[in-house]
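TICKET #2291
ISSUE: user wants both folds in one file
ATTACHMENT 1:
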Amino acid sequence: MEEKQYDFKPKTWVSFTILLILIAAMCCTIFITGQQLHITMLTCMGAAILLLVATGCSYKQIEDAILSSGNLTVPTLLILYTIGAVMGSWIASGTVPMIIYWGLKLINPSIFLVTACLACILTSMATGSSWSTAGTVGVALMGVGMGLGINPAMTAGAVVSGAAFGDKMSPMSDTTNVAPAVAGADLFDHIKAMCFTGGPAIVLALIGFGVLGVSHGGNADNETIANILTSLDSIFNLNIITLIPVVLVLVLALLKFPAMPTLLISALTAAAIAVLVQGQSIPEIMTIIENGFVSTTGNADIDTLLTRGGMFAMHYTASLTVIVMAFGGILEKCGVLDEILDKMKMLTRTVGTTVATTVVIEVLLNLVTASQYMTLVLGGKLMMPVYKEKDMLPQCLSRTLEDSGTVTSPLIPWNLCGAFISAALGVHCFAYLPFALFNWICPLVAIVWGFTGMFQWKTGQIASKKTYRPVDSAPPAGAAK
């Protein structure tokens, strides 16, 4: 259906009032009342609708804006529920317990955080999904860290860092494809460009995890680990067959299968293993896929960790997804975001301020839209004319979009990415934020390179499959800055 065009443009004070209401309400909810985010988001959306209608926006335009958000909402919901099914089936099959079991046997506490980060990098690069990495391997690593006496926030930080970097660098990741598509860059030029910002950031993060591991490596003794191993061994039949779902995900990802069928195949395979190897009945495994696994090892910590998963466990995040995507659609289609972001374009006189402004805009969009996809699309649309004026290569823009938009989304509690990962790992976003080293180092590296001029390529400086102007044509007037 063709989208109807409207002439309404919100006043500047209306747009900024809506933004301030959202930020103030979220801060009160998180830091003062401690309530769930759904009612707060609905209240903010209601306030935005009242302000827009009172200043001349038709309610029909608002309805159309909400409906337009469905294109992003439905695929996101399907992925969420599928990951819930994967989490439940992977635990029931013994896949997650097997990883925990051998992780406790083989991993030294002092190098655990580095190992956890590297494991999530490889998994996320192979699958192209930070969400599925956190919901599967990440959950298992949380169990290993608990057994080794590692602070759960540190473990979660290592998981989030590795998952985010691997997602950024994977050609199968949706965000890694969205960013260059919006910026007009070539996919592999985009990935190469990210090596110059994401590369130093992940190296610094790994060094940081190494230092944290040595100084806060945990205090678990052999008796504690032995009790956990005994608890796992008492309820699960742990053997190499239980690792088949992991191998399937990696193989199918390398074969470039889409995420949805890959996750479904892995979940169904894990369900079959749960029946054939772990002794679950078909009705039992169907219930687990729906409602999640309930652990009865007798070890309170392990039972808390493994009692999770299931499609219904995704209802919290899924319902929040519907609300924030609808709200984001209103802000975008009714011109609120355009008005806010247009006032920030004055901060782009030099390459350094252009990169810094892009980072700030992406973080702001993550706060307001609660969706990394909308953040990438809106930020890319807004900033592309500025990068064209500076005669910069498209991958400079697409890289900066990911350096800020993609990597900061897991740090915001009401962002879809942050809400899901926090629920999957059982650690609040603000608890793991200081330890998600890569996620806040990467934007800083991008800003530093912007102001120093390093790796900020103009047309013709390096080989590029796509450019904003023909290489043999004259650069635009603003390109000298």
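ATTACHMENT 2:
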Amino acid sequence: MADTNYDRQNPAFYVLIAILILMSVGPVIILLANSMRLDVDITSGVGGLIFMPTIRNYETALCDILWYEPEHLRFCQIRFGGAFINSIIIALISTALTLIFGCMAAYALVRFKFMGRDTVSLSTLAVRMIPPAVLLVPVFGLWNNAFCLDNDYGLGAWIRDTFGGRGDVCLAGTHSGIIIVYVAMNLPFVIWILQSFIVQVPKSLEEAARVDGAGPFQVFFLVVLPLIKPGLAAASIFTFRIAWNEYLLASALADRDTMTVPILIVNNASEFDGLGTIFATGMLLAIPPILFTLFASRQIITGMTAGAVKG
């Protein structure tokens, strides 16, 4: 009979795990609980987790996109709902475009041989090391001047004559302008992380697919991409979080209609109506990254470790 004796874990190990879980989940629970409490309950310091929940704080935060007018509000002071939608649109589209371009560029750098391939690979990683603050002034200048439609002729003149105003259309103050910046900022990181995954895909699988009559795009989309799903999941998590939390570049390029949540919170902190509204906006700010991570939870652990060791 085989020996089935197992070494018992030290109780301190389980205590450490419990402490780490409490440190991770505890702040989220406190944030959620306080977001559903009235200000008088929060400041009183009594009741703990036993209280009558309310959604008034969420109604205050999302008053600009609700289909009804909350009874406790005389006017909508915070435009959090519009900024929340802007953040979701910008983060999702920039993440999708970054993954599309990044996986194709990484595949080309790994599989194709051309002059300067190593230089291009290293330069993409070097570009990611540049602090965003260094790019703030050049990007702002380009988006406001170089990449504008002239209002004297062509499309710019048609916009001026039809809709009025100056007529010149610039990337600054638009969703597309911010998305392009985020794609350019996150693309080097995605290329770098996906190269280590594509290297591990056996060339024999691609050659077998070509023998069976598959074209280049079929080989890439039907053979390579399914095998690097862990890398795509890991890259998408980090890319989404960077795009969701970025403030510096967005503050220079966004306007009133395209501002994201970080800009709204920093620039309008004095307009928040009480602590409950602040907790509610914090909870709303945390929900999309949490849901996005859970959506890729089946691949995220493998995605973070599979590229570390070459097989």
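RESOLUTION: both attachments delivered.
EXTRA DETAIL ON ATTACHMENT 2: Residues 81-274+288-305 form a domain with the MetI-like fold fold (CATH 1.10.3720.10).
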